[in-house]
Each structure stands twice: as structure tokens, then as C-alpha cells.
Amino acid sequence: MLKLFLWLKYVRRRRIILLSVVAVAMSVSLLIAVASLFTGFIAAFERSAVEAIGDIIIRAPEGLMIEKYPAFIDRLEHSEVVEAATASLSAQGLLHIRAGNVRPVAIWGIEPQRRERVVGLKRNLIRQGKRAGEPSFAVAEAPGATGGFVGIGVLTKPDEQTDQYDQEAVCKEMMDKPVSLTTGTMELSADGQRNARRAAIPFRIADIMFTGVYQFDSSFVCLPIETLQKALYKNEKGPVATIINVKLRPGVTAEFAAGQIRELWRVFATQELNWGPMAIDLTNIKTAREMQKIYVAEFEKQKYVLEVIFSVISFSVVVLVFCIFHMMVRLKQKDIAILKSCGAANSSVIGLFLAFGISVGVAGSGLGAVFGYVITRNINEIEAWIRIVSGLKLWRSSVYMFSRIPNQVDWNSALLFGTLAMAAAAVGALVPALAAARTRPVEVLRHE
Fold it and tell me: Is the pTM of this model over 0.70?
């Protein structure tokens, strides 16, 4: 009971204890915010790949095409691991928007209805995303005309200050407008030489894509796969593709499914396409996360480096708690002597100060977790406020890929840092607690 009385007395009268609580809270909140922002960025980066290309991608070797792909997609969708699949044809080109406005773009020939089943294409379309029905290349103002989807960043630039696109203005100006795409391919001549062949594809903008990922919004144009094939590979008799995008059934892991798909591809390429073992082995079959692992590994390294740096800075919490508790022990020699003269063992005195230190850690960790949550969840508003006050734009989609800062709290890191903060506070109180336990009541009370 006496120990509890002293504990409450120190808490009420020693406002300097609040300094250690605030220090712990600041350290915990800072570490939680940093870990959450990096974890959210990595998760958004991986998720953007899945949403753009599907769970697994099958890419033909350089110089080869995937023929008879409808038959292979049918086999995939009848397997136990694949929910849906679609084909894509990729190329590079120049988009002629108007006189003097030409943009380099990446071209995808796609099947809009099938792609909707695989990656949810419709949610990225500004006009059709608000309408019922499946996505389509149909142009309302020009029935029968070839339609295409163009990334919003290809047609306009985001506001320098807000980093936001004026969707209403660009839709009003460019929707249904005629544009022209210039692309090309290499084809074999009769004498075996590879010659470049240019192709021009006029089309109308059936819809504008906005994914929130700068890389896609600023460079991609989508056309019907048949239109792109006709322009690039008009000598091909049947449908061809360069990529097969795959969506897996719920509960199926991508690593397991990749093995099953490789076996299906080996059988199909051997029996239907007459490909040799080398061409089959060169076919790139990877999960979306595997394709991003090099970049993710670098992001994680940066995350760990920052966490280590901030952890070293946060070590000052241990020093601060040590100084505060050492001062308390020196100033409260009389209380400790009375406590020991009443029969308290050394372990009880140590327990008093350790419990005091742990309580500081608990209070600081709880407060830090609240601050870290508020900062992380409102990071976009904080960034906007900094921009308004100082004119400094901290986050640009052209640099960091995404139009908004990921703001999901990493609760695993929050639990880890909170636990470490409590341990650090306990360590900071340990040495003063041992010093208090060595106090001799007779020597202290003799001078009182």
C-alpha cells in the first residue's frame, strides 16, 4: 500500500514525468507513421500490378506470338486454379492528339469484356465506370467507328499544386474526339530479312482511363485486340497475342497456381503450337508480385534503413528516462529510506521504480499509437496543409507513382514499436532502480 501511495505521489507532483511520456509518444508515433507509409506504399505498388495485369501473366518469348490463344484460355478457365483469363497484344507508338501534340505511348490490344473479369477494367473508365453494363469500345457519336481508351495523363497534365486532374474538362474536350496512333513492327521478308513496317490506326476516344497510378495514366492506350492485330500482323491467319493475363480462383495461392499453369502451357505449346523445349522454357510465366519483387526489395531496404535511423534517434528516450529517474532517486532518498526501514526488500524498491518506468512506457506508447494513427490516416490532408501554408508540394504522382499517399496503419509495426518503447522505458528506469535498492536507511535518516 505504501508503494502505491509513493507511486501516485510521484505521478501527481513530478510534472517532469510528463516529459518522458511525451518523448516516448513522439518516438512511437514517428516510427509508426514511417513504417505505415512505407508498408502502405509497398502494398499499393504490389496491388497496382495485380489490378493492371492480373494475378499471373504469361508472356511469349521475344519474336514469337501466342497463336490459338482462345483455345488456351478455354483450357485455363476449365482448370481448378483459374477463374478468368484474357489475351493482350502489346506495342509501342505515337499518339497524334492534335497538330503539335504528339505523345509516346504504350499500346495494349485488349478484349474489354474479358479484361473486366480479370482486372476490373470498368472501374478505371471515367464515363463507363458510372454506367451499367460491360465496358465497350463503342463510340456513341460515331456508331461503327473504332474506339479506344486513353490514359488521362496522356491527354492532359495534373494541376501543379494539387496534383489532381480536371476530369470534367478533359472529358468535355476529348471524349469521342478522333485521334491517330502511329505504330509499327518488324516483319520477315521473302529473303529472310527483318524489315520495319509502319502502321497508322485512326480511332475515336471512347473513354478516358484514370487508375491513380501515374505510370499507367500517363502512357497507356487501349485498342480492340483485333484492330491492333490487323494493323501489325495482317498476315496472321488466326488470332494472336503476346500476353495472357490470368485471374485466380479465391483461395488459390499464386505460387501454387503458377506451377499448374506452367504445366498446362507446356502441354498446349507442344501439342497445339508445335513449339520446341527452348521456346517453351523462354516463355515468361510469373506472378504479378514476382514481377515487382526487385522494386519491392529496394523499397523494403529503404524502410529498414529509415526505421534503424529513427530507432537510434529514439534511443534518446532511454537516456531521458534514465536521467529523470536518476534525479528522482537522488531527490527521494528519504522516501526510499523510510520504505526500507518499514521492511521493504530490495526487490520491492526495484519493483517500484521499474513499475513506474513501465507505466511511463505504457502511457507513452498508447499516446504515440494514437498520434501515429491520426498522422497516418490524415497524411494526405497534412500534405495538402503543408502545400497551402508553405507552397511546397511534398508528394507528386509523377515521382511517387500514386495520386494519393497510402494511409493504412501497419498495426504489426505499431505493436512492435509500442512493445519496444515500453521495454526501453523499463531499461531506462532499471539502473536508477538498482541504485535506489542500494540505499542505506541509517545513513540517509541520520542527516534528516
Answer: yes
